[in-house]
Specification:
Oligomer: single chain
InterPro entries: PsdUridine_synth_cat_dom_sf, PsdUridine_synth_RluA-like_CS, PsdUridine_synth_RluC/D, PsdUridine_synth_RsuA/RluA, RluA_PseudoU_synthase
Radius of gyration: 22 Å
Shape: elongated
CATH class of the largest domain: Alpha Beta
Keywords: Isomerase, RNA-binding
Number of domains: 3
Catalytic activity: a uridine in RNA = a pseudouridine in RNA
Largest sheet: 10 strands, mixed
Structural class: alpha+beta
Helix content: 10-25%
Pfam families: PseudoU_synth_2 (PF00849)
Order of helices and strands: EEHHEEEEEEHEEHEEEEEEHEEH
GO biological process, one term: enzyme-directed rRNA pseudouridine synthesis
CATH superfamily of the largest domain: Pseudouridine synthase
Distance between the termini: 57 Å
Number of helices: 6
């Protein structure tokens, strides 16, 4: 894959490239695994001194697939795709990545898709994950350099994800709110998390979109931090756990058997097109069915 950059000051090639998120590791890959660096069409090395206006061309070698990740063909609902990024509407019931208990995962499906499309880069780079029973938008980088460029956005929390959730509890849930409560591992479980004064800082904001029978609310949620199970833990903490989320005290008698959580909105800056990339997706059928039933009551 080829990229070009123009020097705006006298500097070394490696310094210019670092300013465009090309790391030492990626430069080493270019040097030793079949890549190429040229200045104004002539091959040079990373310490070559540039003049203003010099054009640096870098060719990054293709990425081979991870051998241990099995390719599993499966239909995909692709919301957006270009040369660098892919946005997927993830279904319920599939983990993002393989583990000891999950092998039929989104990562397996994406690898198969890349192979079927004969893409030059076949490594799977997940930028934003979702839990097994959370549906909605997932973001993938289609090569390592694209992933590196989004890492900075992840670090400063400029990639915006919003979720719809159905929650129910006792009392009155305010129209909008902010939940700031540290989250750590539960003392009696390796799976669950809990609000813990010694845990990591976590912030969630929300707005109530609609109110239904059974004191159920449809809320639009924005994460400001990315702790494991953050939304589920925070809403359980304030007494309004997610429907279907029996792990954190949610009701399971209203027609939905998984945590009622859906990533409906994703926004990030595409550094290659230099434009904002914004994507939305409708609620899933199980969400809609619960809402319809509650509206009848």
């Amino acid at each position: 894959m080829k990229f070009e950059f123009t020097a705006d000051r006298r500097t070394k090639v490696k310094t210019l490239l670092k300013g465009h998120d090309i790391s030492k590791g990626l430069l080493a890959k270019v040097k030793y695994k079949g890549g190429h660096i040229a200045v104004n069409g002539k091959e040079e090395n990373a310490i070559y001194l540039l003049d203003v206006g010099d054009v640096v061309t870098i060719i990054i070698p293709d990425e081979k697939p991870f051998e241990k990740l099995e390719a599993v063909s499966h239909p995909l609902d692709i919301v957006y795709e270009d040369e660098h990024f892919l946005v997927l509407n993830k279904p319920v019931g599939f983990a993002s990545i393989p583990s000891a208990i999950h092998s039929n995962t989104i990562a397996n499906f994406i690898k198969a898709y890349y192979i079927e499309q004969n893409y030059p880069n076949k490594q799977v780079h997940i930028v934003t994950r979702l839990d097994r029973d959370t549906s909605g938008l997932m973001l993938f980088a289609k090569h390592g350099y694209a992933h590196a460029r989004l890492d900075k956005q992840l670090q400063v929390r400029s990639i915006e994800k919003r979720y719809f959730a159905l929650v129910s509890g006792n009392g009155q849930l305010p129209d909008q709110g902010e939940i700031i409560a540290p989250i750590g591992r539960s003392k009696d479980s390796i799976i669950t998390r809990a609000v813990d004064p010694t845990g990591k800082y976590a912030k969630t904001t929300y707005q109530v979109v609609a109110r239904y029978a059974e004191n159920v609310h449809l809320v639009d949620i924005k994460l400001h931090t990315g702790r494991t199970h953050q939304i589920r833990v925070h809403f359980s903490h304030i007494g309004f756990p997610l429907l279907g989320d029996d792990l954190y005290g949610g009701r399971v008698d209203l027609g939905i058997t998984r945590q009622a959580l859906h990533c409906h909105f994703l926004r990030f800056y595409n550094p290659f097109t230099e434009n904002e990339s914004l994507h939305t997706i409708n609620l899933t059928d199980d969400f809609e069915n619960v809402i319809i039933d509650l509206q009848k009551k």
